[in-house]
Amino acid sequence: MGLVARILEKAGFPTICLTAARSITESVNPPRSAFVDMPLGYTAGRPHEPESQRDLLRQVFKAAESIDTPGSIVDLDVTWSEDASWKDEATSGLNNGVNSAEGDSRQPRINEPQYQYEEDRVAAENFGRNDNAT
Predict the structure, then answer these.
(1) How far apart are CA 20 and CA 22, in angstroms?
(2) Domain-by-domain residue ranges, the chain?
(3) Angle at CA 9, nearest 5°, toward 106 and 52?
(4) Is 17 helix (H, G, I), strand (E, B) or coil?
(5) DSSP string covering 26-81, please?
(6) What is the pLDDT of residues 63-99, one digit of tens each?
(7) Cβ neighbours for 91, distance < 8 A, ≥ 6 positions apart
(8) Mapping DSSP to helix (H, G, I), strand (E, B) and coil, where does residue 28 land?
(9) Is the dihedral of CA 26, 118, 114, 19 positive or negative?
(10) What is the pLDDT of residues 4-52, one digit of tens each?
């Protein structure tokens, strides 16, 4: 999403990425991001809790207005629960019901960038050169 956000920003559309994977977001370095300590797949909040989801989105939009340094990640005061033990059983939420025996399945991003195609690597390395992109 960070690369898409950069392209949108270059075209004049402000963006903010909502993330539950801080290390991956740091690696991709989108123009603006907001971090929530939630299980992957539930970044916008718990299912069937529309008021808390709206509150989270209000915080995201407020963060978007306040970020003035490109690449900033704002930590929102939003967590899955007060008790961090949820991380012992966390799964991606997108893994078709297969739970991780090791607990929290959010893995830190490796430092070496990975690209599906060579063109992606070239685009990422050349992004921002010779233009006024964020």
Answers:
(1) 6
(2) 2-80+105-120
(3) 50
(4) strand
(5) HHH--SEEEEEE--TT-TT--TT-HHHHHHHHHHHHHHHHH--STTEEEEEEEES-
(6) 999 998 888 999 998 888 888 877 776 654 444 444 4
(7) 39, 40, 41, 98, 99, 100, 105
(8) helix
(9) positive
(10) 898 999 999 999 999 998 888 888 889 999 999 988 888 999 889 999 9
